[in-house]
Structures are given as structure tokens and as C-alpha cells.
Amino acid sequence: MSPSIWTLEIESPVPAARLFKAVLDWHSLAPKLLPNIVASAVGVQGDGSVGSVRQLNFTSAMPFGYVKERLDFVDFDKFECKQSLIEGGDLGKKIESASTQFKFEQTSKGGCVCKVVTTYKPLPGVENKDEVAKGKEAVTGIIKGAEAFLLANPGVYA
């Protein structure tokens, strides 16, 4: 099966640099902001640079126990990063591979637009229509959760 792609754009009143840093540090924020979904999270390997791996462990609210993500690319000047799912989640059950690229573009109003491109390769015979909607909802939740935290804490990631 050939890879499939979905895209998403999310507007935010938070400046691009701050929201970008929060997404890179999501493994630290998620258990605090979404404790009903993310039980814990840790950096498994690396120092946050390219090649680093983080693991998010989920509560029973999720259909799987954890995911491990590898940071494949990061550009701190352009507020852009790409990560790949390397273990857990639906990997090996519904998908063969998945990666997500985030790009945060500053707007003239002082906020930003987060542009998301997810590329995934479904396993043969697996329909992922519902999974795309769930993926978009999850990414929107991450961005909006980070946004709410940053708006309430203007000095964080400044």
C-alpha cells in the first residue's frame, strides 16, 4: 500500500517560537496538562536534538498503552520539526509507519499558524478513515492544550 497523507492548519494567538518550543517539550507538558490521557512521559534517548526518542505512556482512556517518537528533523530558526512513530500506538496493528511534521508560521497579529502534515502507511486491508479524524483531533488537542498553558503562563518558553 502506498503512503497516505493528511494535513491540518491550526491558528493560535501564541507566537510561533513559544508554541514550537512547547510542542518540542510536549513530553514534559502532557502529563501535567492532560493527566486523564497521558500518565507519564520520558526522554528515552538523546538530549532533545535530532535522533532523540521520547515515550508517552497513556491512561486507560487511550486504546493503546504508549508511543515512542523519534525526532527526525528540527529547525529552531524556522520553527519546524518532524517526528516518527517508532514503537507502540497503532504501529504494527493498523499502520506500518507514521511521521508528523509541524511548522509554526508567525502571523501579522502576533500569533501563528501551525501547519501539520502527517504521512502514514496503512497495513494492507486496514481502513483508517476514523483514524485520520482521531489523529486530527489529537493533534488539535495537543496544540490547543499547549496554547492554553502558554496563555496562562506568559513567561514560559518566552
Automatic annotation (TrEMBL):
<dbReference type="Pfam" id="PF00407">
    <property type="entry name" value="Bet_v_1"/>
</dbReference>
<dbReference type="GO" id="GO:0005634">
    <property type="term" value="C:nucleus"/>
</dbReference>
<dbReference type="GO" id="GO:0009738">
    <property type="term" value="P:abscisic acid-activated signaling pathway"/>
</dbReference>
<protein>
    <submittedName>
        <fullName>Pathogenesis-related protein 1</fullName>
    </submittedName>
</protein>
<dbReference type="GO" id="GO:0005737">
    <property type="term" value="C:cytoplasm"/>
</dbReference>
<dbReference type="InterPro" id="IPR024949">
    <property type="entry name" value="Bet_v_I_allergen"/>
</dbReference>
<dbReference type="GO" id="GO:0038023">
    <property type="term" value="F:signaling receptor activity"/>
</dbReference>
<comment type="similarity">
    <text>Belongs to the BetVI family.</text>
</comment>
<dbReference type="InterPro" id="IPR050279">
    <property type="entry name" value="Plant_def-hormone_signal"/>
</dbReference>
<feature type="domain" description="Bet v I/Major latex protein">
    <location>
        <begin position="7"/>
        <end position="152"/>
    </location>
</feature>
<dbReference type="GO" id="GO:0010427">
    <property type="term" value="F:abscisic acid binding"/>
</dbReference>
<dbReference type="InterPro" id="IPR000916">
    <property type="entry name" value="Bet_v_I/MLP"/>
</dbReference>
<dbReference type="GO" id="GO:0004864">
    <property type="term" value="F:protein phosphatase inhibitor activity"/>
</dbReference>
<dbReference type="GO" id="GO:0006952">
    <property type="term" value="P:defense response"/>
</dbReference>
<dbReference type="InterPro" id="IPR023393">
    <property type="entry name" value="START-like_dom_sf"/>
</dbReference>
